[in-house]
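Lay summary

Proteins are chains of building blocks that fold into shapes. Our project writes down both the chain and a compact code for its shape. Here are two examples, one after the other.
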Amino acid sequence: EQGDQSMSMKVAVVTGAAQGVGFETSQLFATLGYHVVMTDVQPLDGPVACLQAGGGQVEGMVGDVSSEAFVESLAARVAQAHGAADVLVKLESMNPTGSYAGISMIQPAEDTTVDQWQRVMNVNLLGPFLLCKHFGRQMLARRSGSIVNVASVAGLGGVIHRAAYNASKH
């Protein structure tokens, strides 16, 4: 019976969901009656438990959105358990060490290594592409769904000492 209930609920997948806007977005969808799949590079036990304690139908999956293997497994897990996602929200979440599910590296361009630049591009550009590719496929097959990629004002005008981040948001 639980399986039947989860298949009938609308499903929202939220990235960067461990804290901040990602957590608040997850909480909003849970309040609206969605089954929420929270994902982040950070541990999600606390955020998931918090929303479940409030009555939300919530689960978490820790992983890196720039990994196609992770995104494929996330999309497959959602499809198997729920049929497909109704909503995908790609957000950023800063962890205590200052890195993001979407990355904002603060340092002058002349001090940025190629590896640092590539990591920012992988998370901020490749990650949304992979999410849209795999969840979009589910939504296209159902002919229903919404994808929201939250960006940054840095996409409109640069922020000092964030060359890679600015470029990834443009």
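And here is the second example, written the same way.
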Amino acid sequence: LLDGKNIALVSDAGCPGISDPGEDLVRLAVENGIPLTIVPGPTAVISGLVLSGLPSGRFSFEGFLPMNRRARNNRLEAIKGDTRTLVFYEAPHKLIYTLRDLREVLGNRRITIARELTKKFEEVIRFTLDDAIMKYQNESPKGEFVLIIEGADEKRIEEERISKWQEISLEEHVGMYMEEGLSKKEAMKRVAEDRGLSKRDVYNSLLRK
């Protein structure tokens, strides 16, 4: 390329550049000021997402999870509250372990497992993580897998966020923010947001104390 030649990178095994060494080639071309373009072709992440039946308007592609168990769990904990649909790649020999880790951290969510997309033995199965674990602990998976998992429930997250503040009184809650340097007015505003109340409700409750 640096000598002025034109080179095309073509793959019959997915999209070069997505969780693939083709990413390194693109980076090097950019670093060296070499112009490049792409002709869209099949990519498992998008194909799996569309076939999943799960919300596709917003999604997070996580690629392959780290092999190290601690790093793997840290990644899952970091995305546990993500309300977008989550998409992962996984190799067959690690599938059952990944499914168990997903179940442990994310709970029993809906999942679509897509195998060998656009190929002869394409298979798409829609079920829950518990069902997926039951299936693959009794059989040896083959092929390359895309895992599409529903995001965290926004309503449940909001309910949990509000409920955790019920453990302390309004006075303690306001005092906590004032200790951080906020004015009483700003502290009451934050408390109202935390508890899903209006500022007037917070003000009136404190007045009655």
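What can we say about the second shape? Strands lie at 59-64, 85-90, 110-115, 123-128, 145-149.
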